[in-house]
Amino acid sequence: MRIGEIAALVGVTSRTVRHYHHIGLLPEPRRRANGYRVYTLRDAVLLARIRRLTELGLALDEVRDVLADDAGRELAEVLGELDADLARQEREIQRRRAVLATLLDGPLTPDAPLSPALIELLKVAPATSSPTAAKDREHLMLLEGVIGGDAVYAALRPLADNPAVLALYERLDELEEAAADDPRVAPLADELSAAVPDEMLAAFPDGGPAATGFEQALLDDYSPAQAEVVRRVMERLTARLDRRAS
User: Fold this and answer.
1) HTH merR-type domain spans which residues (predicted)?
2) Which of 28, 178, 211, 220 could join 207 via S-S bond, C-beta 3.0 to 4.6 A?
3) 76: Cβ contacts below 8 Å, ≥ 6 apart
4) Which domains does the chain have, with CATH numbers?
């Protein structure tokens, strides 16, 4: 396989593969006489393993440690573990889709299993092609029982159709294939946290966003760089709450 083929097979970009080579996370394969890299099945399995570990929220140095522990294991054993990981991910997706199917079964009216305030918020939110914006709305529905209340949704109304907020989502989309240490992560986290109004923070349980118990589940739903942005945003919002309480 060539670099573009292994990248497409695993679901990453060729640039990501080259980055992993550069930092020594993915060993360089042998090259043909014409200089092209030649990748094997084991290379594909290793790359898939790296992607899965980063999706679970591990930093690249932590991934390196896990891979060192994997050294010498049989290929069939590693493949079996990857298959089990994918099966767990598939079950989680099915569970989430079942929840959404219940929520979307019928028109969104005050009689639907959503609060009227959240229904109104979803109605005013403009159509967008941003995957992360769509995911954020999904999270709002899934978390309604934890953070729900008219106050939080009323505080979000001014943000729903704000072009500046949509632009932030688009920047988050651009980090889909980026590493967690991408230089765009920190400034985007600062801008996103600054966009959250104090009124919304006041609606969270004591302890801030992380206290909902959904923190890790939310992080697992994003790619490494996106998860790092979300983690930093929650960290900054919790710090804001602490400063207000002191």
Assistant:
1) 1-69
2) 211
3) none
4) 3-79 (1.10.1660.10), 107-245 (no CATH)
